[in-house]
TrEMBL record:
Entry-linked Pfam families: Ribosomal_L19
Keyword Repeat among record annotations: no
Keyword match Membrane: no
Native organism: Mariniphaga sediminis
Protein's UniProt name: Large ribosomal subunit protein bL19
Length: 115
């Protein structure tokens, strides 16, 4: 196990990302390579869960696209993530929001946290 942690620390890429949690609406700017071209694609949605720790941390973002729910899992330490922008802080009482998968319309709204 010490060898695995040593290798993870050697290849770790330190990027500063804002703090966010489940229920927050975020925009992830993700670098996509198509052939020899590169472009940045924005994926805006609600964070369903944050999983893992340190270098293996991932987060799941869900958005509605044309009436169909689309979920994407991003590794937090990925070199393809350009930046993460927190648009809204959500007020939820759970860590994993899988119940949102069965809700649509106004029922799927999350209250905004007031500062």
């Amino acid at each position: 196990m010490d060898l695995i942690k040593f290798v993870e620390n050697e290849f770790k890429v330190e990027k500063e990302h804002p703090k966010f949690s489940a229920g927050d609406t975020i925009t992830v700017s993700y670098l996509i390579r198509e052939g020899n071209k590169e472009r940045v694609q924005n994926f805006r949605g609600v964070v369903l869960q944050i999983k893992g720790r340190e270098s293996t941390k991932t987060f799941t973002v869900r958005k509605m696209s044309g009436g169909i729910g689309v979920e994407r899992i991003f590794p937090l330490s990925s070199p393809f993530i350009e930046n993460i922008e927190v648009n809204k802080k959500g007020k939820v009482r759970r860590k994993r929001l899988f119940y949102l998968r069965g809700l649509t319309g106004k029922k799927a709204r999350i209250k905004e946290k007031r500062f």
